């Protein structure tokens, strides 16, 4: 009779002081499993070309953490978490700065200014670009966000700067800028020396004053008034700036005599000259082309009469030649030699400023707040000429 015995398993036992501490099966092919042990594996694989840096990229992430301990043999069980996706933001390159210009490049006070993008910005991604415009006036924010500044906001001597900031729909790029200085209009009035003049209202001259003009004289024979409030019916009162036999003069009568300060030398015809008469409250003196002449003492007296440019209020004394800008001020502007300016700007001392640059019509504006308009009489003609031309 054949006997079947149960298959035995070899044991490797550890004895310590004749005591069995533990035995381990020596058959490596046999493992003990426990129903509590679970292993889930979720594998993601990315193939193909590297991702485009300008597009969103999905990055799979898998994490594995221990979830417990088997009660029979101490083996830790693990569980794989669900895949988490992280989206990287797209990479954007801002546009480059544009090249900007102001048109016209040499503006006058009667021109509109336009900020022009002369060369467009570049964008690495080829995005559509828009521009935000801004203006400063003499370094201060002008509060203008359009491409154009209208002429009524301009004043001679101001420095205007425009900026154009590009945007590609995501972010701004560096701005392009341009600047321009407002120039005077090269225009004036030509008087024929016979019956032409500009009439305006009386100007009260304070204890100190300056009356000045840019002139290009023609016939200088006899006496020719440039700016006058003198009337022979009211003799020995009010100021008069003029030329007598080619020599500029200023009258500052004291009520009993014609107090005159005259330039000692003749000036040339057919050329532009700056002529100013100054009263400092004690003395009167003349300045020609920036050179101050000798002083003559006087106690100036005035009476209310209209002001004429190009003639005396009475008795004619008509000026022959061209006039570019006339200003009357409530101060002695020039006390020593100076460099004559063109394109005067109204300031706190300016009582009247006629630029004579309208170029048409019969009215010439006073650029000060006093608004003392002048009216052209006779055949005086507008001309496009000024100092330096």
TrEMBL record:
Entries under PROSITE patterns matching the protein: IG_LIKE, PROKAR_LIPOPROTEIN
Signal peptide: 1-22
Domain Ig-like: from-to ranges: 89-181
Biased composition (Low complexity): 42-90
InterPro entries given in the database record: ConA-like_dom_sf, Ig-like_dom
Region called Disordered, residue ranges: 25-99
Keyword Signal: yes
This protein's UniProt keywords: Signal
Tagged with keyword Signal: yes
Name of the molecule in the record: LamG domain-containing protein
Source species: Nannocystis pusilla
Organism taxonomic ancestry: Bacteria, Pseudomonadati, Myxococcota, Polyangia, Nannocystales
């Amino acid at each position: 009779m054949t006997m079947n015995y149960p298959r035995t398993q070899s044991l490797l036992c550890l004895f310590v002081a004749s005591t069995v501490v533990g035995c381990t099966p020596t058959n490596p092919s046999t493992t003990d499993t426990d129903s509590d042990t679970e292993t889930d594996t979720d594998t993601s694989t990315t193939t193909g070309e590297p991702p485009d840096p300008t597009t969103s990229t999905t990055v799979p992430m898998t994490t594995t953490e221990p979830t417990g301990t088997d009660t029979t043999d101490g083996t830790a069980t693990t569980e794989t978490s669900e895949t988490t996706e992280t989206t990287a933001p797209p990479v954007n390159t801002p546009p480059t700065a544009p090249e900007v210009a102001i048109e016209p490049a040499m503006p006058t006070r009667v021109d509109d200014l336009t900020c022009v993008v002369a060369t467009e910005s570049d964008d690495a991604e080829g995005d559509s670009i828009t521009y935000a415009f801004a203006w400063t006036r003499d370094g201060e924010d002008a509060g203008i966000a359009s491409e154009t500044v209208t002429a009524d906001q301009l004043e001679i001597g101001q420095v205007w700067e425009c900026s154009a900031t590009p945007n590609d729909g995501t972010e701004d790029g560096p701005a392009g800028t341009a600047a321009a200085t407002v120039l005077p209009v090269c225009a004036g009035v030509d008087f024929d020396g016979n019956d032409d003049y500009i009439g305006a209202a009386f100007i009260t001259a304070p204890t100190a004053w300056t009356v000045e003009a840019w002139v290009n004289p023609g016939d200088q024979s006899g006496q020719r008034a440039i700016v006058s409030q003198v009337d022979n019916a009211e003799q020995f009162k009010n100021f008069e700036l003029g030329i007598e036999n080619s020599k500029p003069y200023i009258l500052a009568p004291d009520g009993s005599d014609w107090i005159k300060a005259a330039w000692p030398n003749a000036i040339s015809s057919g050329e532009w000259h700056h002529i100013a008469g100054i009263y400092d409250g004690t003395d009167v003196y003349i300045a020609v082309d920036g050179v101050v002449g000798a002083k003559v003492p006087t106690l100036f007296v005035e009476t209310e009469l209209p002001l004429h440019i190009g003639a005396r209020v009475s008795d004619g004394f008509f000026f022959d030649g061209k006039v570019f800008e006339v200003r009357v001020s409530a101060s002695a502007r020039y006390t020593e030699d100076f460099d004559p300016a063109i394109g005067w700007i109204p300031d706190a001392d300016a009582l009247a400023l006629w630029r004579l640059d309208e170029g048409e019509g019969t009215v010439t504006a006073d650029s000060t707040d006093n608004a003392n308009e002048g009216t052209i009489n006779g055949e005086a003609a507008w001309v496009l000429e000024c100092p330096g031309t």
